[in-house]
């Protein structure tokens, strides 16, 4: 089976992740790019040997296109992903699935109605260290999970975005809505759900725009830092920190504390996964290093999406999984804004 892919939005996520991974996949024969700035689409089409659509409708009405990556900014996902599914395309939607529960449900319902694959790009489920950690927890060799802490921070989207300036849409409330919580935090919420086979149900949080300024030199409209306390349905307690102001180096680590020891995930450079047993024994795993903004590697997301389409199998990250993580982020934002504990 040869597939033709369409990509909506030609920012950094397309340039560094989606397009090269489609290009490397043996089952993808061609990529069609659309961006509201046509020169961006043309640049990527030239880079990856693809072609250009001049409108979203042209892209979605093309009967030869089988699959769509929705790499638009957050506020458009519910429009483009819904439309693509109802046009009979399989869809890989960037995270967060949407900005509201109502709009996320529109996408999920469109997927059910169309019978097409809907997958959401929560890429941390695909790393070997997270998959191995989930296996270890599931086997119960460390006993019950009691507590956890997770963090995701880097120097900010203005260093990653396509135009490399403080005018990035990530800093605009009407477009990104959740700031660092929706950019980085939602990944870690999703990976906690995945690792623990559990869901966060109660949250409190503090947030602030501590350091970032926009193109006019004013503090940004969304949070650049947020720190949370979390409780899961099964009673596990945890903390989470998400930041756009980790200026020295990126941190993308998680530690799971169990009855019989500790799991450290992406906590050190040499070993991506460490088990420290309560008798002092240490087991180190050298797996692949995690993607960073400065070190791009194949995420496995596109390969998984293509496999789901080829074999008609359920994706590792469903619309419902993405909605569950979105609900937690909405709860975290409400908790931070109202200084209350919020039930999800």
UniProtKB/TrEMBL annotation:
- SUPFAM superfamilies to which the protein is assigned, alphabetical: Glyceraldehyde-3-phosphate dehydrogenase-like, C-terminal domain, NAD(P)-binding Rossmann-fold domains
Domain GFO/IDH/MocA-like oxidoreductase, first and last residues per copy: 130-263
Q: What is this protein called?
A: Dehydrogenase
Q: Whose protein is this, by species?
A: Peribacillus deserti
* Domain Gfo/Idh/MocA-like oxidoreductase N-terminal residue range list: 4-122
Q: Which GO terms describe its molecular function?
A: nucleotide binding
Q: Which InterPro entries does the record associate with it? A: Gfo/Idh/MocA-like_OxRdtase_N (IPR000683), Gfo/Idh/MocA_Oxidoreductase (IPR052515), GFO_IDH_MocA-like_dom (IPR055170), NAD(P)-bd_dom_sf (IPR036291)
């Amino acid at each position: 089976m040869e597939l033709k892919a369409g990509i909506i939005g030609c920012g950094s996520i397309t340039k560094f992740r989606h397009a090269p991974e489609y290009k490397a996949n043996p089952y993808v024969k061609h990529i069609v790019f659309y961006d509201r700035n046509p020169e961006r689409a043309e640049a990527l089409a030239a880079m990856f040997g693809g072609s250009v659509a001049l409108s979203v409708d042209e892209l979605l009405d093309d009967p030869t296109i089988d699959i769509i990556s929705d790499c638009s900014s957050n506020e458009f996902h519910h429009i483009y992903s819904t439309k693509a599914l109802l046009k009979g395309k399989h869809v890989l939607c960037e995270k967060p699935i949407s900005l509201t529960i109502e709009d996320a449900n529109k996408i999920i319902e469109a997927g059910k109605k169309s019978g097409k694959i809907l997958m959401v790009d929560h890429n941390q489920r695909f790393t070997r260290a997270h998959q191995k950690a989930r296996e270890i927890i599931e086997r119960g060799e460390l006993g019950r999970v009691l507590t956890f802490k997770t963090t995701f921070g880097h120097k900010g989207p203005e260093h990653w975005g396509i135009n490399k300036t403080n005018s990035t849409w990530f800093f605009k409330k009407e477009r990104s809505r959740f700031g660092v919580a929706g950019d980085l935090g939602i990944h870690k919420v999703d990976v906690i759900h995945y690792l623990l086979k559990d869901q966060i149900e109660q949250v409190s949080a503090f947030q602030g725009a501590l350091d970032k300024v926009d193109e006019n030199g004013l503090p940004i409209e969304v949070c650049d830092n947020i720190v949370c306390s979390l409780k899961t349905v099964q009673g596990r307690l945890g903390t989470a920190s998400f930041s756009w102001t980790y200026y020295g180096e990126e941190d993308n680590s998680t530690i799971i504390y169990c009855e019989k020891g500790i799991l450290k995930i992406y906590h050190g450079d040499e070993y991506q996964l460490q088990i420290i047993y309560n008798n002092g024994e240490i087991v180190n795993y050298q797996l692949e290093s995690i993607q960073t903004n400065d070190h791009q590697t194949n995420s496995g997301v596109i390969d998984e999406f293509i496999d789901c389409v080829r074999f008609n199998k359920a994706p590792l990250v469903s619309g419902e999984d993405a909605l569950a993580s979105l609900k937690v982020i909405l709860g975290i934002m409400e908790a931070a804004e109202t200084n209350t504990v919020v039930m999800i």
